[in-house]
Amino acid sequence: MSASFTPTPTPTHTHTNKPHSRWSDKQSKVLGDLAEEFSVSTSQLERLTTAFIDQMQAGLAGDQKSTDLAMIPTFVSGRPDGHERGSYLALDLGGTNLRVCLIALKGNNDFESHSKAFKVSDHLQEAHISELMDFIAISIRDFITSEHISSKIVEHPSGSETLELGFTFSFPVTQTAIDAGMLLRWTKGFSCPGAVGNDIVQLLQEALNRNEVNVHVAALVNDTVGTLLAHSYKHPNTFIGAIFGTGTNGAYVEDTRGIKTMTTPTTEEMIINIEWGNYDKDKRFLPVTIFDNKLDRESINPGVHVFEKMISGMYLGEITRNILLHLIDQRLLFDGTSSAKLNQHWSFETKYMSQIESDTSVTLIPIAQILEQDLGIYLNTQVDREIVKFVCQLVGKRAARLSAMATAAVIRRGLSVEGRLAGHGYPLKLSQGDHAIGSNVNKNGTNVHESTDSVVNQGLQPIHVGIDGSVFEHYPHFEERMVEGLTELLGPRTKDIVVLGIARDGSGVGAALAALIATKNVVYSR
Ligand code: ADP
Ligand code: MG
């Protein structure tokens, strides 16, 4: 790259209002190199997608040696279609908060929910598992008491006297039944001893019994599975549930014939928890930078969940902080001066990136406020603020494109011969160089946009992707950047067919639906 290179954000996301004409040659050069390092080209995305699909296949075949994707069968068969009724407790543990909910499924794709959040302290995230489980049991009791819930007032299809609970537990678990699962490893900052290798449902049920809380744990679901189920309650064709929050992961609907690890499948389809946060942990394909490696090395779980560490809310701010310090140390930012706050590990929250990227003013004064109030950087020029925003854009955009890659890979798997979408004739690209089947290109080579209506008229169902998580919901341009990446991978018809939707409260409603499926012992096969 030449020294005169002037980095400019890609045109679709140019919200900085001026070219960076005031940047010094050195600033332009170093930031240009960073831009190069953090950009993921279409052909790189293609390579990553192919490897992702190969790893999915290896996981489904039980070949755990050649894959980082666990591809865990969830024992959740079929999907709800919105007619289900009943009230259930739901519990969501997966990040900073524990949430207890009461969900009333009303049928007609409608539900009501009440919930209460309890903060899981840093101490509890590292305490012995029995201490964490006691805390959960007591929180459930607190919720039941404060909301005056009893099994009497709960409309209960199974006629059970106990309150039935669905547990959304967002850590890697191998399941042996809908209500049994062994923790494989902790992620996202948790490290409670006594849990890995043990059945999470049993640990919780014991704590409930110990604390005399009359609740039965009916189902254990991952948050991705809960998100898929909940979205399916509103959009019965939901194919993927994905999380872009503290961590990232996805679940999808697989044809049971494709699951080689299940010898005698009794249903046509089953939801698979991919555990995609662990994709390519050996960094054979992912474009990791020194900033990612530093973060990984200093994390609580080095060498695993490398993909998650490039994408999710827990980490994006820290990658950005690492880059900012690298620029400061070369005197290219803040005149070479950091602050005690910025020097502190994890001090730069992903939320700041959202706020910084949202600032489209010329002088970037809102960014100055974040730098001053949240980070103690009092001397910052407009050039400094432009650079900070530029760095956030690099990290945020890479995260969205990698998220698109995982989503596209799962859709391509679905479209493959053994997958659940096979034979639906979706006019999407299946591989690099493939021309989207039936894509409508006019004489000038530009695509003629067709509406979802015409897709439906052609007998095609849209592919719904239910998404939960603050990063997807609040990070500016995250969705738009994801759609751009998806379109590069799946072709011009993507916007007509792939529908990304926010599945708010996915873990609550989804867990309730899983408890319903488990207690009614109903298999919703389609
Ligand atoms: P969880 O994944 O724990 O269920 P969330 O989906 O709310 O919870 O994700 C929390 C993560 O999202 C945190 O890592 C936090 O840094 C990040 N986050 C919170 N607010 C924002 C925001 N406005 N923009 C981007 N990321 C955010
Ligand atoms: Mg969540």
From TrEMBL:
One of its GO terms (molecular function) is ATP binding. This is Phosphotransferase. GO terms for biological process: glucose metabolic process; glycolytic process; intracellular glucose homeostasis. Residues 33-233 form the Hexokinase N-terminal domain. Pathway: Carbohydrate degradation; glycolysis; D-glyceraldehyde 3-phosphate and glycerone phosphate from D-glucose: step 1/4. Transmembrane segments: none annotated. Coiled coil: none annotated. PANTHER family: GLUCOKINASE-1-RELATED, HEXOKINASE. Residues 240-516 form the Hexokinase C-terminal domain. Keywords: ATP-binding, Glycolysis, Kinase, Nucleotide-binding, Transferase. Its EC number is 2.7.1.-. It comes from Linnemannia gamsii. Residues 1-25 are annotated as: Disordered. CDD domains: ASKHA_NBD_HK_fungi (cd24018). GO terms for cellular component: cytosol; mitochondrion. The keyword Hydrolase does not apply. Belongs to the hexokinase family. Pfam families: Hexokinase_1 (PF00349), Hexokinase_2 (PF03727).
